[in-house]
Task: structure prediction
Amino acid sequence: MNRPVKVRFAPSPTGALHIGGVRTALYNYLFARQNNGVMLLRIEDTDSTRFVPGAEQYIIEALDWLGIKIDEGICMDAPDGKGAHGPYRQSKRREIYHKYVKQLLDSGNAYYAFDTPEELEAKRAEIANFQYDARTRSSMVNSLTLPADEVKARIERGDKYVVRFLVQPDEDVHVHDLIRGEVIINSNILDDKVLYKSADDLPTYHLANIVDDHLMEISHVIRGEEWLPSAPLHVLLYRAFGWEETMPQFAHLPLLLKPDGNGKLSKRDGDRLGFPVFPLEFHNQKDGSVSSGYRESGYFPEAVINFLALLGWHTTGDQEMFTMQELIDQFSLDRVSKSGAKFDYEKGKWFNHQYLQLKKDDQLATLFMPILQEKGINADPAIVAKVISLTKDRVNFVPELWEQVNFFFQAPTEYDEKSLKKRWKEDSPRHMQELLSLLEAQSDWSADALDATVMPWIESKEYGVGIVMNAFRICLVGAARGPHIWAITDVLGKEETLNRVRHALEVLQ
RNA sequence: GGUGCUAUCGUCUAGUGGCCUAGGACAACGGCCUCUCACGCCGUAAACCCCGGUUCGACUCCGGGUAGCACUACCA
Result:
């Protein structure tokens, strides 16, 4: 059966979008685009207790920043969703779920259960590995054990109840996974999952997910590996609804793991190791916490995409740099690895370095200007672009440019001690005095002309190029670093250069 | 505990029975370049989890171990 490709990304608005979620969204997007399919965004807000204000907007903004475009559902230009299958927020779909829960109840695939959370808890404490299933449901309080009229009476009286899925025992359930192949799980280990919660009159993930994917005509469910254990339940649900024919194909993605140690990557790991685990900075309105983001850290979206795409997927060959279009062209689910990938932040930095080198100097200047202004510097964009061209190859991020270029805009007020110790010699003041006189007389300030004046002078005096130039550098920069010296004098100009030498001569002895 | 998934350099991975004395990238280390710091370039070190089996031949296939991970909620 060849259905049009339609995938969905269905996050819960419970906080900032985790980087693992971003990768899931990315793989969905790549798959959709490659197959001329549709990418849908649905908000799974069926847990009213975990709802975080602003999280949904955050998700939309993050995907937009990364260039993951949404064709249907909630998106930037349609905050309430666009498409023929709305609403796209599960909390707005209560009536729809009511209808389908009833269908399951009527067909005998689900039943009412009156056990309270406390009773269940007690049961779990009492019986090790207690599971609500074929073995135990007969000893619980539900519509299978209660007389029909009492069930009716309880419901009418307003007793709290949940609806549970009736799982038939002793059956091998087959799940065909596009990445892992055939996964077989016996129904005995499945419990009678709650499909409908009493607490907030909303379905659980399992029910809502199946109903929505069916109604929204999803062809492929590409999601994290944490869902693999419940995939058989989902298959059973499709069957119970009579939707097996159009059941989506499944692909369960490997998890993103901690850079060190074991376990999946968490927000805490980012805090602990000093890197963001969220695409954008997030201000949690619920608990007041602030989490750093890739965008605010100076990452380019292309770099994040490239980095993430390769964490769990690779083609044959040695290509490392991929544009979004190349990823779309080359992506394939059967080349997604089966094992989890440790999150290697260092490689992420390298990707950003590569993309930064690819940018034009004036683009970088535009990005850097606000940072300069923050430092109280109003510079000519052309000069900024010029100094960036001299220094960009030594940084990974735009904000790092500051420490590379600051001396172009601010004369050194103090001099790096280590540099002085190593490069400021006993003769340096005398050398600089002589150099000063030489440069004062210099009319042509071009790099070539300066070189033609200074080098022969050093040679004739036998001072040593390194000795003089490094001392000169300390005068101009304040430390032993920076681009080629004539590139620096070129930007500084004659007067500023001379002033810096004079100042150094006053301060340094 | 139960169930499932997974297993190549420190990390991300290439490898689909002979092309493998296992390739690339990040990180590490060394060298070159050089007025400095970087970048860049060149190079070095670094891996097939273990044990069986199948086969003329296993990193590749099968079985068993082991280890890691995930799930095991009226959370998603």
User: Anything to note?
Assistant: The radius of gyration of chain A is 32 Å. The longest helix of chain A spans residues 485-507. The first strand of chain A starts at residue 6 and ends at 9. Chain A has a mean pLDDT of 94.
